[in-house]
User: Which sequence fits this backbone?
């Protein structure tokens, strides 16, 4: 039994994540008390960083991440007794391939996710959804796999065929990007949003204060938040931008940047 669970998460200031972290602590407790293997729902990189801050304090448990493929964004954390290895453990993550034959329909990520939600499936039970031409791949927890196989027969009124495939057969997503060469007065978050999306500094500041911006998946509400090379900035309904390279100062003393916009 874990005494005083709250001390393990007292450093986490994001109230929206406290309940999630408490549930994961409950799983750690079950591993310690009953020597069980536990796994979390799918978590984004920010949530997983929060988990590391307390998981690493338990010497009698080990853990690994599983998202279906190496660079997946959403992953489950598998927690297990220290005397086991990951090779002794059944993988809780599966993948379903969804195929359709229409020449007139092109299903998108929102279509796939909407179809799953309409079945009553919670978002946290589903990992990445990889969209390709005439098929998609849904990474999900094993606990809902059979239900989806049985229940998912159409997406956006398009008839689909669903089959389980091996994780090794996943077709890795190809991400289209566009490089933007620009300059900013400083590496403030609102400056970079303004430059990346060609909107006013005032509008970008409003977006941040309205809780529509994440940096490396972490919600940020301070327009002056400092950005560094490699950071990814997500703006709701406008997409993601990575600060690919900081090139130094221009002749006018502005900071030169290469931004990579994910299309």
Assistant:
């Amino acid at each position: 039994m874990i005494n005083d669970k709250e001390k393990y998460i007292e450093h986490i200031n994001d109230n929206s994540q406290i309940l999630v972290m408490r549930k994961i602590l409950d799983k750690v407790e079950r591993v310690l008390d009953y020597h069980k293997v536990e796994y979390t729902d799918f978590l984004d990189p920010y949530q997983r960083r929060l988990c590391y801050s307390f998981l690493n304090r338990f010497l009698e448990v080990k853990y690994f991440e599983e998202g279906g493929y190496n660079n997946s964004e959403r992953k489950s954390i598998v927690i297990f007794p220290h005397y086991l290895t990951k090779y002794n453990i059944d993988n809780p993550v599966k993948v379903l391939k969804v195929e359709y034959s229409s020449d007139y329909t092109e299903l998108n990520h929102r279509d796939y996710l909407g179809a799953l939600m309409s079945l009553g499936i919670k978002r946290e039970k589903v990992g990445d959804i990889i969209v390709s031409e005439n098929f998609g791949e849904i990474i999900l927890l094993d606990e809902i796999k059979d239900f989806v196989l049985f229940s998912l027969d159409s997406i956006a009124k398009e008839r689909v065929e669903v089959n389980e495939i091996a994780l090794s057969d996943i077709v890795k997503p190809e991400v289209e990007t566009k490089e933007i060469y620009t300059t900013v007065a400083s590496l403030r978050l609102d400056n970079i949003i303004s430059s990346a999306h060609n909107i006013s500094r005032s509008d970008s500041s409003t977006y941040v204060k309205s809780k529509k911006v994440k940096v490396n998946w972490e919600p940020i509400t301070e327009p002056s938040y400092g950005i560094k090379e490699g950071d990814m900035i997500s703006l709701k309904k406008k997409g993601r931008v990575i600060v690919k390279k900081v090139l130094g100062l221009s002749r006018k003393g502005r900071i030169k940047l290469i931004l990579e916009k994910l299309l």
